[in-house]
């Protein structure tokens, strides 16, 4: 048992002192491992977490080999004090006592940290530097605060199949789920599917990092199959769902079935995370994390959009987050039409959307959000069309990508594409808690294509859940008037005017007024004429 404290200084350059003597740790990634463990709760991290942070571009075999090499180098440098580092099959830790010295004189935290490792390591480094700048108490990284990530373990698939090719279905579901969860930037995923042995056959082990586990099962016997999924916290089942197929055709589940099933799983995880980290006080306090930011953003209320901006402005450590920048830009776009938009507002939207795309052009959620900002708020239709197209390609099961693609098609006057995209968004998001948001483009498109009964039906449903959605309200007024329901149309116009005093026959013809397209100006202009407004 170690009795004398090891001193690890991250005040400026890395410095390790043992038994009164400084120890030189030569390998940069070995120093990174020690620094991460020194700041972690109980000075302990899982092997998978460390590999994900330090070797994110390597496959499992390469990352494991690189970690063994780094640990061997570290122990060689430690010499007779090699027992500082403890390890087993799942975890690595520092044997105490350990004294951690942080900057207390304005110095930089871990100034000689290795560069260009990956986003997770940079997130950890930025979080620790911000914590040192604010001189907050030492707590485990990524455990609290706005940049914390919710850890989820992807367990091995349970398969009982009479046809090996059917395993592709389960793989597709998990790929869709992982793609969507990673896009939200609030989850840290541990993939246990590649383990040579199923270490979980006897139950979920006591791994400290993941807070939730995702388990998928697929059973196929002849023409019958069942696909089931569960979200676990230890042995507690937080959510479960199953779908069955019984047919003799070549495909048991269609691509849309698989996508919808995956989206239900993602939504369940988002809801579980929201309940845990935002809680019942959300309405009174506003967002407390990025998951609350996304929730507020989707609510479409004016105050909700402002609360998103207040939260992000109050957390400068999120300036390096692509999703945070995209959320800020989208919140500006969502409040256009709530009064006179200022040039400063639009420049802020442009700055944040541009920054988001610079940070991560591979995130489909960022692409979808920024595509809408460039198309609707900044009227740069080609830029918006390209971004939303990339979002669809990268995440074909994500309803946000199709919803914002539909709106961009409206801006460009491509109404057949808009209808196709909007129906796809509605289908993919049919089980989502944000279902009505993903049907909003369908409501607007139906008005513009003359399907007014559909437009009224969908608009009513959307506005029951999102009563402050001005774009839907403006177009619903047009559909009511086209159906001869003039009192309903007049009522809708007055509801819009209660929040947008500029809404008038003259204003809607102004190219700077925030309407999606020339088609929208025409149908809403006709509505004013039918109602006798001049």
UniProtKB/TrEMBL annotation:
Domain of life, per lineage: Bacteria
InterPro entries registered for this protein in UniProt: Sig_transdc_resp-reg_C-effctor, TPR-like_helical_dom_sf, WH-like_DNA-bd_sf
GO molecular function ontology, one term from the record: DNA binding
GO biological process, one term: regulation of DNA-templated transcription
Protein's UniProt name: TolB amino-terminal domain-containing protein
